[in-house]
């Protein structure tokens, strides 16, 4: 079983927003974010807290997961963070109930 060489992670920023990223070295990347050198987004929203980390077989796989999760709603990201994986399919369904009905 090969060691993990990539990580997809989610940070909770001081303003309550989430930042989704991927890296080869989660410890070094977290230090970068916390020092303000991680990204322009997180540098304006310090401090940040690591709330989710998914070890991946490669950084390519981690980047794929990053792009996937970046497209998710806040509710779906929070279900992932909590470990409520059974909720993910239902949270993927678009809610059309708020659409304006024709007159």
Your description of this structure?
The model has no long low-confidence stretch (mean pLDDT 89). The protein has a 3-stranded antiparallel β-sheet with strand order 2-1-3, sandwiched between helices. With 103 residues, it is of the alpha+beta class. Strand 1 (6-13) and strand 2 form a beta hairpin. The protein has helices at 26-35, 40-43, 59-70, 74-82, 88-91, and strands spanning 6-13, 18-23, 48-56. It has 5 helices and 3 strands, in the order E-E-H-H-E-H-H-H.
Return residue spans where pLDDT drops below 50 for at least 5 consecutive residues.
Answer: none
State the major sheet: 3 strands, antiparallel
The end-to-end span amounts to: 61 Å
The secondary-structure class comes to alpha+beta
> What is the count of β-strands?
3
Radius of gyration: 16 Å
- Order of strands across the widest beta sheet? 2-1-3
Mean pLDDT: 89
Order of helices and strands: EEHHEHHH
User: What fraction of the residues are assigned to beta strands by DSSP?
Assistant: 15-25%
Backbone shape: globular
The number of helical segments is 5
Helix content: 25-40%
């Amino acid at each position: 079983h090969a060691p993990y060489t990539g990580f997809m992670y989610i940070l909770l920023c001081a303003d309550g927003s989430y930042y989704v990223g991927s890296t080869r070295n989660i410890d070094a990347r977290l230090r970068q974010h916390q020092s303000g050198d991680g990204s322009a987004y997180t540098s304006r929203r310090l401090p940040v807290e690591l709330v989710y980390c998914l070890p991946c077989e490669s950084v390519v796989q981690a980047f794929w997961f990053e792009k996937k999760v970046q497209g998710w709603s806040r509710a779906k990201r929070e279900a992932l963070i909590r470990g409520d994986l059974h909720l993910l399919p239902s949270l993927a369904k678009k809610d059309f109930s708020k659409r304006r009905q024709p007159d």
